[in-house]
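Example 3.2
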Amino acid sequence: MNSAPSIPSFQTYGNEVSSGDVGFVHVEKVMDRRFLHNGHVESHRHEHLCQLCLWIKGNGIYIIEDRKLTFQAPMFVYVPTQIVHGFDVTSGSDAIVISLAHDVVSQDLLFKGNMSHTPLIIGDTRPGVQPTPLMEALMVTACMRYQTSPDTSGQIVRGLAIAVLGEALSVGHTLLHHEQSTLATRIRELIELHFREAWTVADYAKILHHTPYQINQATQSAFGQTLKRLILDRKLQESKRLLAFTIRSIEAIAAEIGIPDPAYFSRFFHNECGVSPREWRRNWSKKP
């Protein structure tokens, strides 16, 4: 029986991966290899290379891992080693690509950081978020220097690439903060709508088109708590309101906040407040 085909792995696109990639630095435009792909590059990866790619004109579809993005230039993509990516772009599209062997940049603190091991995309479909003029100038300079003297420009290109990544990570951090803030606001709205229901983190993630990990990242960043904790706190807040300002029974309050088992609700409330719901209501009623 034939095994399933593996994901193609290249040095630069179309060239099989080599074990002699130490110190490899390369800069080119995507359409320099149009005779190989004519704007359509199947999903592939680079075992020992990371890439910085700036789309300078055109549009199309960019695939990175499980994401498929429709984009309009300019768009910047940082692709760490072993990340699967590909694209299908319209005629006239082009990009500058800096390819660096992992050993060339691995000692730099930027490339050691956690963000440098995660793909970074700036300028895909989000309005107002674009590669900065500095990123574009650095990428163009790297391309010009490499085309002029490819054998002697390695260190210069490396320095320019590190500067590009530094600027990209700065933009990416601002973007991430904005996205998490926007996501956190939406999470709060959904909690208010659904805290009475038996929604799991996975349910929120599905509605918001994010992973559970991303949801919890956003809530931790914005509120210092996981989503599960936020939901429990909202249930607790509502139960206290109902205990304080209504004469509903404990059973009715438990059902109202989405905990149909009154005994479980009483244990939950006691664990959170140190007293039972009845004791809490009695203490509240004694307050001046």
